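STRUCTURE:
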């Protein structure tokens, strides 16, 4: 039997599915990717759960966020197999550690004091944008030359002070530059691929990969085909190409995983859910990495980063 490497996944949209589609971890619906049996099967020991703010819903952003935070705690209460990540988490135990995050700075409704409330409620990472401009920053999707607003800069500084990790996913290049200029703690990107391999605005430039890595941050490769390849269909090998590129540009300690499960309509064959993670470890071994390096990419790098915010 091949070794089952522990896995840390930097991003999924299960909480949105819980609120809007009735997803349940232990009684999954047909189209649901994050499911308890597959988390266990794939060796997941750390899962970040994002509260994604959907600006097309007729609900104000903070209320949306609160609904998903409520869903997060209901999920924990209903699934004793899960536990919030703490500094004494036992990776060798049988539980899966969880971290609550926010995707979309709209959630704070242009009020920095709301960051302090979210931190008290357990939020430990937040992206400043999703795909639309907001009061904090401008997104990658718009190919803008604008970065952080004055309020966005204030929010970044407060996140660093509080201990909410600044997540650069979805942020435009000028915004990433702005964050790197002022952040007082290492930053990360939960689910972002390499632009050198796929020329999509949501993918990251080498200079940013290098700078994030130099400061002790990590970048999680996502499994969305339009950010993995210019071809119509992505494969596990495309995931490996992006991981290998991160290793080449930023070193092995910056490469991580951020699936984006439950946040896309089409999946890679073999990576339809968390049960497919051993395929990635197997390909990394074939690439020539040793077990320690593979363990870092699959789990250790993201774990060592985010535990500083637990």
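SEQUENCE:
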């Amino acid at each position: 039997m091949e070794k089952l490497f522990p896995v840390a996944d930097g991003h999924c949209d299960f909480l949105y599915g819980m609120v809007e589609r009735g997803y349940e971890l232990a009684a999954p619906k047909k189209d649901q990717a994050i499911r308890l049996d597959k988390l266990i099967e794939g060796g997941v020991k750390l899962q970040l759960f994002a509260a994604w703010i959907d600006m097309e819903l007729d609900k104000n952003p903070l209320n949306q966020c609160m609904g998903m935070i409520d869903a997060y705690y209901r999920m924990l209460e209903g699934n004793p197999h899960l536990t919030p990540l703490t500094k004494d988490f036992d990776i060798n135990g049988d539980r899966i550690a969880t971290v609550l995050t926010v995707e979309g700075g709209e959630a704070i409704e242009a009020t920095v004091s709301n960051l302090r409330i979210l931190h008290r409620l357990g939020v430990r990472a937040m992206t400043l944008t999703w795909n639309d401009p907001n009061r904090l920053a401008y997104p990658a999707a718009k190919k803008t030359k604008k970065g952080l607003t004055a309020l966005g800069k204030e929010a970044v500084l407060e996140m660093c002070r509080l201990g909410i990790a600044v997540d650069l996913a979805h942020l435009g290049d000028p915004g990433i530059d702005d964050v790197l200029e002022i952040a007082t703690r290492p930053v990360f990107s939960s689910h972002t691929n390499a632009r050198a391999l796929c020329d999509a605005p949501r993918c990251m430039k080498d200079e940013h990969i290098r700078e994030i890595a130099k400061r002790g941050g990590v970048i999680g490769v996502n499994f969305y085909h339009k950010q993995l390849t210019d071809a119509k269909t992505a494969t596990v090998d495309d995931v490996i190409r992006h991981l290998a590129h991160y290793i080449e540009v930023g070193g092995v300690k910056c490469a991580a995983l951020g699936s984006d499960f439950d946040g896309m309509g089409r999946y890679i064959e073999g990576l339809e859910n968390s049960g497919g993670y051993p395929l990635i470890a197997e390909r990394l071994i074939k690439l020539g990495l040793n077990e320690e390096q593979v363990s870092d990419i699959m789990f250790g790098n993201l774990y060592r980063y985010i535990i500083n915010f637990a």
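REMARK: Residues 8-309 form a domain with the TIM Barrel fold (CATH 3.20.20.140).
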